[in-house]
Amino acid sequence: MLSEMLSKVAREYTFQRAKPFADNDFGNFVRHDIAIEAKKRLVFLPYDLKVKASVGSGVWAAIPWLGFFDPIVTSTATKGFYVVYLINPQTQDIYLSMNQGTTAVYQEYGESSGQKVLLRRAKDIADRVPEFASRFETDPIDLSSEASLPKGYEAGHAFGRRYAPGSKELNEFESDFEMMLAAYAELVDRGGVTPSDVMQEEAGSSDVIEVRKFVLSRRIERAPNVRSQVLKSRGITCEGCGLDPKKHLSYKGQPAQSPVDVHHARPINELALGESRRYRIPDDFLVLCPTCHRMIHKQADPSDLSELKSKINFVHSTRSNQSTWEPFK
């Protein structure tokens, strides 16, 4: 069981850290065996998450961890927000935590100011999903380390659960895990740590539900793994007006860097209740030039490509024959 494996890490980590890091069997156990067990926990849950377990890179980390990352937010513990198990080797406590990437914040604000930013954002996270935060603990966590990253983990903790060695809370390990992943999915859906006024301005609306749907769609469209896969499958020609960057703009770069947008065409409100697998590649997407992308978002149905094309046809039919290329066929 995952709880037993993490408890093993908590018990043995201090001893194992005294050994050489390279090719260490214990390190491989954490990175490989624990990660595989964690992925098994996700098989029957409706979440598409990246899993990583770490004891450090090149040298032993002060705090070993097991993280779960939604790729439309982040795929690394250095930025964004994610669910993580943090282990205090001194007390052997295990913390389940809704946490944030420390490295990116430190790089922008410096260590001291960065920790204040993380503390402020941690409160914002708890406030954005209060029904989940209230079912966990919002007390600060103690990792018994003065190292830079552990102090960032402490500051970035929004809410979670502490499991002391042999505590009765370990009986709730599995249910806590599922509840935390549900909180993570809801936090992503509600905009994460993006301020409400910023989301409203971007969406051009003050309706809370519509703003959240718009922001979630944009997150999906901009996710690097989504964009690269969609463009690889659908090509880089605009499916609205027919603009071909290679033909019409002499573009010679890689598809992922081409001057076209990926549009999440499946309306968020079509998702079934509780459905968290938010997209299928390439079926739920369109490739559009920036102008067509803006236009389709103005439609009542942002998935209706035929309506977009009819508007473009009308524009071209009222113009003199100035264009040197066919808009679409």
Your description of this structure?
It is built from 13 helices and seven strands. Mean pLDDT is 88; it is low at 272-276. The chain is 45% helix and 12% strand. It has helices at residues 2-16, 25-42, 102-109, 111-128, 130-133, 148-156, 173-189, 196-203, 208-222, 224-234, 245-248, 290-297, 305-317, and strands at residues 50-54, 65-69, 81-88, 93-100, 159-163, 261-264, 285-288. The protein folds into two domains: 2-189, Metal Transport, Frataxin, Chain A (2-Layer Sandwich); 203-317, no CATH class. The longest helix has 18 residues, at 25-42. The protein has 329 residues and is an alpha+beta fold.
Please provide a brief summary of the model.
This protein has 329 residues and is an alpha+beta fold. It has helices at 2-16, 25-42, 102-109, 111-128, 130-133, 148-156, 173-189, 196-203, 208-222, 224-234, 245-248, 290-297, 305-317; strands at residues 50-54, 65-69, 81-88, 93-100, 159-163, 261-264, 285-288.
